[in-house]
Amino acid sequence: MDTQPVLRLEGIRRSFPDGAGGRTAAVDGVDLTVSPGEVVALLGPNGAGKTTLIDIVLGLVAAEDGFVEVLGTTSRRAVTSGRISALLQTGGLLPDLSVRETVKMIASLHRNPRDTDEVLAAAGAAGFASRRVSRCSGGEQQRLRFALALLTRPEVLILDEPTTGMDVNARHDFWRNMSSLADEGATIVFATHYLEEAERFARRTVLMDAGRVLADGPTADIRRRAGAARVTVTWAPSDAELAALDHVLGVERHGARIELRTDDADALARELLTRTGAHGIEVASASLDEAFRYLTAPSDEKEVAA
């Protein structure tokens, strides 16, 4: 089994002029290693540095500092060989060509492309293949870009907000296709603002903010960083009783109900049942959305257990 990373980034930095004579760091010292077959979600608020990082991986933007290796070589060589491909938020499409003509034209630029009908079907674009690009919706144009990305049989797919403009059914079909590619061994790295997409399809989550990596690991581990669950009880404790509880990261009162954010729901539930008068206990797993909001919040807004 090949254990060589498909992506290796060390100390990546990139800044841009801020319009006031200074520079703003878009990517600020990012280290990232991706192994073959991983499905990785890049999450972060607007301006977190996700798109700039993707552009650096693809060789579209040069890093000011740091080391980039893609499939054991440079970004340019990996892209030129077709071993890495991308579906970006934007990209020039000729409006007067049909969808099928566009795929055929781009296929002619590659040495050994996949069959046109095959990639159109895989991208969910076969149903509008004869339509002019100018008459395609935003979601349909994204599916066309996806078909183009599949032409070279890439080992690595980089996706930047890939389902933007797609309706619910198209998004479902897109991720079904992505899951099939992942099952076949493709490595997929995608940036998305749809947290449910990361929740369902990413086997690993990298959370970025202000150009830096805040958290990196399996989604369950990311949840644990912000509190793996919420335990809600009916109880009227004193401040001292609350302070004495173990595994509590945050407390919210809602009338007679108290919601406790915790890193160990089982241990906290046992403690509440055996040591306190709490009753009506409900346990709910933390979502990636909660972890996202907590880990990107200003530090003075985070509640930290004593």
TrEMBL record:
The molecular function terms in GO held by this entry are:
ATP binding
Name one matching Pfam family.
ABC_tran
**ABC transporter domain span:** 7-235
Name the SMART domains on file: AAA
Looking at the UniProt entry, the stretches that span the membrane are none
Q: What compartments host this protein?
A: Cell membrane
Keywords from the UniProt entry = Antibiotic resistance, ATP-binding, Nucleotide-binding, Transport
Is Cell cycle tagged as a keyword?
Answer: no
Against PROSITE patterns, the record matches this protein to: ABC_TRANSPORTER_1, ABC_TRANSPORTER_2
Q: How does it sit in the membrane?
A: Peripheral membrane protein
Q: Can the keyword Heme be found in this entry's annotation?
A: no
What is the name of the protein in this document?
A: ABC transporter ATP-binding protein
The organism is Zhihengliuella salsuginis
